[in-house]
UniProtKB/TrEMBL annotation:
<dbReference type="InterPro" id="IPR009721">
    <property type="entry name" value="O-acyltransferase_WSD1_C"/>
</dbReference>
<dbReference type="Pfam" id="PF06974">
    <property type="entry name" value="WS_DGAT_C"/>
</dbReference>
<comment type="pathway">
    <text>Glycerolipid metabolism; triacylglycerol biosynthesis.</text>
</comment>
<keyword id="KW-0443">Lipid metabolism</keyword>
<feature type="domain" description="O-acyltransferase WSD1-like N-terminal">
    <location>
        <begin position="5"/>
        <end position="273"/>
    </location>
</feature>
<dbReference type="GO" id="GO:0005886">
    <property type="term" value="C:plasma membrane"/>
</dbReference>
<protein>
    <recommendedName>
        <fullName>Diacylglycerol O-acyltransferase</fullName>
        <ecNumber>2.3.1.20</ecNumber>
    </recommendedName>
</protein>
<dbReference type="GO" id="GO:0071731">
    <property type="term" value="P:response to nitric oxide"/>
</dbReference>
<keyword id="KW-0444">Lipid biosynthesis</keyword>
<dbReference type="GO" id="GO:0006071">
    <property type="term" value="P:glycerol metabolic process"/>
</dbReference>
<dbReference type="Pfam" id="PF03007">
    <property type="entry name" value="WS_DGAT_cat"/>
</dbReference>
<comment type="pathway">
    <text>Lipid metabolism.</text>
</comment>
<dbReference type="GO" id="GO:0051701">
    <property type="term" value="P:biological process involved in interaction with host"/>
</dbReference>
<keyword id="KW-0012">Acyltransferase</keyword>
<dbReference type="GO" id="GO:0004144">
    <property type="term" value="F:diacylglycerol O-acyltransferase activity"/>
</dbReference>
<comment type="similarity">
    <text>Belongs to the long-chain O-acyltransferase family.</text>
</comment>
<keyword id="KW-0319">Glycerol metabolism</keyword>
């Protein structure tokens, strides 16, 4: 039985182009322990875990004539050193240098003739820190058969160096099917399901409209959940042609601050996160000379985990439950911070009232660093939907409030890096971890040249909410 890409996974390959690569990234910063944490340790750690993720040793193989969707096949030339790469920052190794490197790395598409992922081990950070920068294509992470690599390499206890030294790779790839076999299997499937040939031809022609329509149906009935889908998103500087360059900026905040705002004004922590982003976008738009009125909005596509009524939520079935895309109009024209929060809370209440929302405490029980996978699934949901209907993507996934380790090294920070879609100049990922809330802002280098300014405004918007009285 051939392991063929699903229609959804294939669509992410069909819709990709050089300036909008469709991979999700992450930046994890670690303290280097006294015993050391080297590139060889990272190679051993990832090599040990790849046995649980067969997809990370497989590549995409096209079918001649596009008679069927591509296949997943074992990479007979798999080279772990190709996928796990070593990099270093020049002295003094500042965070700004790290995030400039991240922007350059995530702007480069993954090689389609290889397994669709990369990890960069970055040394030279100040205070004897190191970083892992990950890139994983959206066609790879489906949350069921394959989770994000960051979820698998992090543990709640440190490993001894000797445990990593024991690694010995004994994997043997399966033989790749011949061209004749590919054609025979494709013809056989076409006879059994003639509709597949039509769908495949559409994908091969890269008909984005038809592909997105097919994908939208696959993502948990998105159209049924989006109440404002009938009208396009407001026009503004966030919807601009995307170039090949990126700007990446981060914001560090404390989870306790969001909890205090929630306790004072009700709602959820996610409502507060969205209200903070709305406040920052308001100030940013004003800095760009935008003429805001009381009715001005910015529409965010917010992927949220929802539960299947017949399936218990678990790490083995993240998508068996679902990640659904919701459109939320952020009230950037409202000058009062508390009223902005109330508007957002009301808009999000429909999701909560559906009875299908997955509580943060449930997500925290998922093994490993589940936000890495959930951000990937959120990006899949977002990029399956037409960009005409939203201005930016915001994913927010709660993480564990205890330290996690890659081998012997303790992770201190984790920043998501979401991909940009066509004409979408900004994407924001948010993750909470060990008392912190970490924002990753990925912007187009031309359209979002001032993404650092927006990052500072996020901190100011949180301070505004913390000090706001009703």
């Amino acid at each position: 039985m051939q392991d063929r890409l699903s229609a959804l996974d294939a669509s992410f390959l069909y819709m990709e182009d050089p300036v909008t690569p469709m991979h999700v990234g992450g930046v994890a910063v670690f303290e280097r322990p006294s015993a050391g944490f080297t590139y060889a340790d990272v190679l051993a750690l990832i090599g040990q875990r790849l046995g649980y993720l067969p997809r990370y040793r497989q590549r995409v193989l096209g079918v001649p004539g596009h008679l069927a969707r591509p296949l997943w096949v074992d990479d007979v030339d798999f080279d772990l050193n190709y996928h796990v790469r070593r990099s270093a920052l020049p002295a003094p190794g500042t965070d700004d240098q790290l995030f400039d490197l991240v922007a350059r790395l995530v702007s480069r598409p993954l090689a389609l003739e290889r397994p669709l992922w990369e990890v960069y081990f970055v040394e030279g950070l100040s205070d004897d820190r190191v970083a892992l920068v990950t890139k994983t294509h959206q066609a790879v992470v489906d949350g069921t058969g394959t989770i994000e690599l960051g979820q698998l390499i992090l543990d709640d206890t440190p490993a001894e160096a000797a445990e990593l030294a024991e690694f010995e790779d004994t994997w043997t790839p399966r033989r790749q099917p011949s061209r004749t076999q590919l054609l025979l299997d494709a013809v056989s499937e076409t006879v059994q399901r003639p509709g597949e040939l039509v769908n495949t031809a559409v994908g091969a022609a890269k008909d984005a409209v038809a592909t997105v329509g097919k994908v939208t149906e696959a993502i948990s009935g998105v159209a049924a959940t989006l109440r404002s889908v009938a009208r396009p998103a407001p026009e503004g500087p966030l919807n601009a042609p995307v170039s090949g360059g990126r700007m990446f900026s981060v914001v560090r905040t404390r989870l306790e601050d969001f909890r205090k705002v929630r306790a004072e004004h009700s709602g959820t922590v996610n409502d507060v996160v969205l209200a903070v982003v709305a406040g920052a976008l308001r100030e940013w738009l004003l800095s760009r000379g935008a003429a805001l009125t009381s009715d001005s909005t910015v529409r965010a596509l917010v992927p949220l985990a929802v539960s299947d009524a017949e399936t218990e939520f678990s790490s083995a079935g993240l998508v068996g439950n679902e990640v659904a895309a919701y459109l939320v109009d952020l009230p950037v024209g409202e000058p009062n911070a508390v009223l902005r929060l109330q508007h957002i809370g009301h808009a999000m209440s429909a999701h909560l009232d559906s009875g299908r929302s997955v509580a943060a405490r449930t997500l925290l029980r998922v093994g490993g660093f589940a936000p890495a996978t959930l951000h990937s699934l959120g990006a899949r949901a977002a990029n399956s939907f037409s960009g005409r209907f939203f201005n930016l993507v915001i994913t927010n996934s709660p993480g564990p409030q205890v330290p996690l380790y890659a081998g012997p090294a303790r992770m201190t920070e984790m920043f998501p890096v979401l991909p940009l879609a066509k004409n979408q100049a900004l994407a924001i990922g948010v993750t909470s971890y060990h008392g912190g809330v970490y924002f990753g802002l990925n912007g187009d280098r031309k359209a979002m040249y001032d993404v650092d300014l927006l990052g500072g405004m996020i901190e100011e918007a949180l301070d505004e909410l913390k000090g706001a009285d009703w």
